[in-house]
Specification:
This protein has one domain. The N and C termini lie far apart (64 Å). The protein is globular. It is mainly α.
Length: 208
């Protein structure tokens, strides 16, 4: 019980600033090189559904508050990435943010049938998988990890490990346990790529 308590709250405390190393890396470097906007969109979806699922089903707040904290930081990181890469204008982001707010309010109000939320939760796994595969492929394709933060991805892997255990043994939700287990493997892969390419970046071919 003590180990579970410490593990749970260590994740919550880490999530207060888990994405901060990545945000600072982008701000200080003035570049979002290495970051995938598609991965950002996928993570916003996953953290949003994680927050809604925990809230609507009256889970203990310690079991899903990190999803909410990560959601806030992911939105900030996504905005920074889009702004720096010049991929989205305010005229696009503001309406999208408004639509997102309406949908989140509706889901948190629990006005939809239960099967709707269950379907959204099942979709978390493939969306998260595709999002992180996109990030992994981007690193492999470019042959470098750019401004990706090993600290952030390492903490993400740790958080998934703890949440995999609590979902399996405390909440007893096989859906969440499977999602966190898969995320753990993918976060570990991206972390390994970051560490590898920081030490041995692929030499780009010269063009004449």
């Amino acid at each position: 019980m003590l180990l579970s308590f410490v593990a749970n709250w260590s994740v919550v405390l880490l999530c207060v600033g888990l994405k901060l190393p990545q945000i600072l890396s982008v701000v200080r470097g003035g570049s979002a090189k290495g970051l995938s906007t598609y991965t950002g969109i996928a993570m916003i979806y996953c953290y949003s559904i994680g927050t809604v699922y925990g809230y609507v089903n009256d889970f203990p707040i310690k079991n899903y508050i990190e999803a909410t904290l990560l959601l806030i930081q992911e939105i900030i990181l996504f905005w920074l990435t889009c702004s720096i890469q010049g991929q989205r204008s305010l005229s696009t982001l503001i309406p999208a943010a408004g639509l997102y707010g309406v949908l989140m309010s509706a889901l948190l109000s629990n006005i939809f049938p239960a099967f709707v939320l269950d379907a959204l939760v099942f979709a978390v796994t493939p969306i998260s998988a595709v999002g992180k595969m996109t990030q992994s492929f981007k690193i492999f394709k470019e042959g470098e990890s750019g401004n990706l933060s090993a600290t952030t991805w390492g903490l993400l892997a740790y958080g998934c490990l703890v949440r995999f255990c609590t979902s399996l043994f405390e909440v007893k939700s096989m859906i969440l346990a499977f999602n966190y287990g898969l995320s753990l493997l993918q976060n570990g892969l991206v972390l390994a790529q970051i560490q590898y390419y920081k030490k041995w970046p692929r030499q780009k071919k010269r063009t004449f």
